[in-house]
Amino acid sequence: MNFHYSLAVTLKDILQVLNPTEDDWSLRHQVISDLKYVVSTVDILRGATVEPFGSFVSNLFTRWGDLDISIELPNGSYISTAGKKYKQTLLLDVLKALKSLGGFHGIKYISHARVPILKCDSNKGNISCDISINNLSGQMKSKLLFWLNWIDDRFRDMVLIVKEWAKAHGINDSKTGTLNSYSLSLLIIFHFQTCEPAILPPLREIYPGNMVADLTGVRAIAEKNIEDICNVNINRIRSDSSRAVNNSSLADLFISFLEKFCDISLRASTQGISPHNGQWEDIDTNMIWQPKTYALFIEDPFEQPTNCARAVGQRNLHKIAQAFQSSHQKLTSPNQVHPLAVLVRPEVLSIISRSQHAGSVIHGMNQLRIHPRTNPAGTFRAPTGIHLQTANQYQNRNGNSQSYRGAHAPTQVQQRYTYQNSPNKRVNQRPLQGSQSTSQSQSQVDIVSNNDAYKRNPNNGQSSNHGQSSQNLQAQRWRVRSEK
Q1: Which of 35, 257, 260, 427 is the most buried if burial means most Cβ atoms within 10 Å?
Q2: Which InterPro entries match (predicted)?
């Protein structure tokens, strides 16, 4: 079998497993509703809102993705500020409420972190939650990552694939000194910026300033200003017919991603990665990065000069480089192993092997030697300010409209599930009853079902309805209502 075709098919199979099902979306809605109730019982947090961020808001989460939760304190219409000690006190009150009310287990209070957090696992689906206080910056960063998909829909697929690959090689855990998921996403952005031709622009062309520094004053105004700037710039980038178009396949992009960072440990000794500028930066001449005290520098493009890879030490940097080098060698060697042996953890391989489609592709995989380095391990605040010129289509290199497909499609749950900015309103989800809200343009989106990959597994609880994506089904079942 042609290797390029084999890798392309394998990546498709992996995405079918990683993409969240309707039940995965629904379960996270329920968990966030449970957390809202817990917070509402804490007197000192009366009037606070519970707002998700991270991969769930950016739509970069997998079926097993965690939930990042921010408890936003009431401060009238202004962006609330609270000191670290006060946040620690509030999280202790939330911890007591969680233990008292039940519904969560594995509760851990991490007070010494740069951002104090409370970790817990929901009894519903064992979903892991990280709870912090006043993390509006995290919410806005998640929005911006979500908006990047409007420029190129391959971004999301690459993030899901790379995160799974990184977990399989034990390099996606900041607690053990490797890369967090945000850093991995930034590496993919940087890769897309430095491809020939470039897929994504330097992020300064989307938001030129320091976004986090601009989150001051009246919250609604600050958020709208950022959204308006991004709206104008993204539409300008998408409508620029003079931009060279990169038509590389997902398989080609993944191989070139591995190749690009094979020498990351060597290059990191003198240069840092700047997605804001879309290029490697010499550390010695970049004054805002001084003094250099990190083994690896990946600048946060929305909060310069923060280093998102500050947890990575020199020893783990070599481990990260080795993962890039060995994976690239195995996938491009004349004596290739099957791509699944390089890309996924055993539990993901098990799900793929049970699917009817992948079964014929990986026949005989039990003979492969697979030694992964790691063990197996909500309410959606969709970006509300972007108004793209073409909601469900993008232009190919010839200027012809094409429909978004499958996981690339902006789902209605993402477009409609929004929070009210006012801290005096709470947002809940309700089942739609006979709603006919699906627009004609939405109904024309070509949807690729993810159900086929799971239809033989009786324990996943996924509907066997074909022809619609799980996220599209979710959009038809849920809506947001605000109550006073």
Answers
A1: 35
A2: MTPAP-like_central (IPR054708), NT_sf (IPR043519)
Task: List, as one string, the DSSP characters of 93-128.
Answer: HHHHHHHHH-SEEEEEEE-SSSS-EEEEEETTTT-E
C-alpha 114: how far from chain center: 21
User: CA dist 437 to 150, 226, 466, 477, 478, Å?
Assistant: 23, 29, 21, 11, 11
Which two structure tokens, joined as six digits, stand for 464?
Answer: 């066997």
Tokens encoding 315: 């020893």
DSSP state of 292: P
CA distances from 315 to 171, 179, 229, 321 (A): 12, 13, 41, 10
For the record, the structure tokens of 38 come out as 């817990």
* Residue whose token pair is 């709206």: 231
- Measure the CA dihedral 416/422/426/429, to 10°: 0
User: E strands within 379-425?
Assistant: 393-395, 401-403
Q: What is the distance between the alpha carbons of residues 12 and 273, in angstroms, rounded to a whole number?
A: 29
Cβ contact 403:444 at 8 Å: yes
Residue 89 is predicted with a pLDDT of: 93
35: Cβ–Cβ under 8 A, 6 or more apart, which residues?
Answer: 50, 69, 129, 131, 378
Taking the C-alpha atoms of residue 119 and residue 69, their distance in angstroms, rounded to an integer, is: 10
Whether pTM > 0.70 for this model: the answer is yes
| pLDDT tens sequence across 19-31 | 999 999 999 999 9
For residue 197, say if its preceding peptide bond is cis, omega within 30 degrees of 0: yes
d(CA 156, CA 149): 7
d(CA 130, CA 117) in angstroms, rounded, equals: 6
Q: Which residues face 483 on adjacent strands?
A: 426
Per-residue model confidence as pLDDT tens digits over 137-166: 999 999 999 999 999 999 999 999 999 999
